[in-house]
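Please, structure for the following, as tokens.
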Amino acid sequence: MAASASKEVTYAWEGTDKKGKRIKGEMQATGEAFVKATLRRQGVNVVKISKQSAFKSGGKVTEKDITLFTRQLATMMKAGVPLLQAFDIVGKGHSNPSVARLLADIKADVETGSSLSQAFRKYPLYFDNLFCNLIGAGEQAGILDALLDRLATYKEKILAIKSKIKSALFYPISIIVVAFVITAVIMIFVIPAFKELFSNFGADLPTPTLVVMAISDFFVEYWWAIFGALGGGLWFFFYTWKRSEKMQSTMDRLLLKLPIFGHLIKIATIARFARTLSTMFAAGVPLVEALDSVAGATGNRVYHDATKRIQSEISTGTSLTVAMQNSEVFPNMVIQMTAIGEESGALDAMLSKVADFYESEVDDAVEGLSSLMEPIIMVVLGVLIGGMVIAMYLPIFKMGEVV
């Protein structure tokens, strides 16, 4: 899917509808033939098609853009604004041309007879199964405005969790990158200058100084191999991680076991699981069908596989509580709340409370992590940079003692 989507190009088209009215729009497709075929099925007589240049394509459509659009559409639907007019208002008011073009294409599909959920399904890169299933459930039940509001709230909460996870990881990663760059600069440019100074020292150099100078020599001679191996290794790692299910499963399992970040990733994953299942169940989506979307929304392969096992057990008559207990990846509190929800017939409300609890846990964990990481990073940087500086100044101290 991602490979085909990456080859898509934006085409501007002009034509006439069944009544002879002149219409125009834009569409992302892999070729002109696809655009013609799609428009013909929609009853449009194509007059002109032209490929849009790359610099006019606008920015990338992000998850934040989709979340904002969902909230705006929900607000307008609740206010009684007609659907097509709401698309016009949101599309024309958006600063990102790519979003405006996407909404124009969806609006064109709806105008030619497609349901809203069918129109969204044509763009799986931006609207996943969960999004489309909830929109479809809202259309069938005649409560599209309420479902859009619930969906907007869901996406806002999930986006907030992802943002907190990224902010927690960004600080230590950025410090590690900066520390590596500084170390490389010292090794390649600074220490060789000291080495030249010490060449006429006329006495044995201290062991720490010799070790640092040997490492510096290696950096100077093989810097291209070090940076190449590091860059190539990182590229290969992330390339394999994205495309290998076995690699994803292994890495996600390791991430959950990390001493500092593992707990944060686990509670964020449980919050996403509970929030997604609560939203789907409240919308009237059957439990077995809902678990398909829940598995994809967890963001962790371990919980994805566990959700699939839960789905399989439920389809054979096992209760959700027992299936979750058998998966052995959920805390006792989550299982107990699920059991109360099943017994009282308020499973969506109980799962929503579980999600609220773990989302607040994520907030606390991120704050605690930030305050914990700062002293640890300062100590590591102090030992690394300070150690090199001391090693290079030891011979100077030795000279002072001799004098």
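Strands lie at 9-16, 22-29, 45-51. The first strand starts at residue 9 and ends at 16.
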